[in-house]
Amino acid sequence: MAGDVLSQSEIDALLSAISTGEMTAEEMKKEEDTRKVKSYDFKRALRFSKDQIRSLTRVHENFARLLTTFFSSQLRTYVQISVASVDQIPFEEFIRSIPNMTLINVFEVPPLDGNILMEINPNIAYSMLDRIMGGAGESPNKVNSLTEIETKIMTNLFERSFDNLREAWATIADIDPILTELEVNPQFLQMISPNETVVVISFNTVIGETSGMINICIPHVVLEPIVPNLSVRYWMQSNKKETTPEQMDTIQKQLKYSELPIIAELGESEITIEDFLFLDVGDVIQLNKSIEAPLILKIGNIPKFTVQPGKLRNKMAVQVLEQLKGGEDDE
Question: Which residue segments constitute the domains of the chain, with CATH numbers given?
Answer without folding.
Answer: 13-38 (no CATH), 50-241 (3.40.1550.10), 258-329 (2.30.330.10)
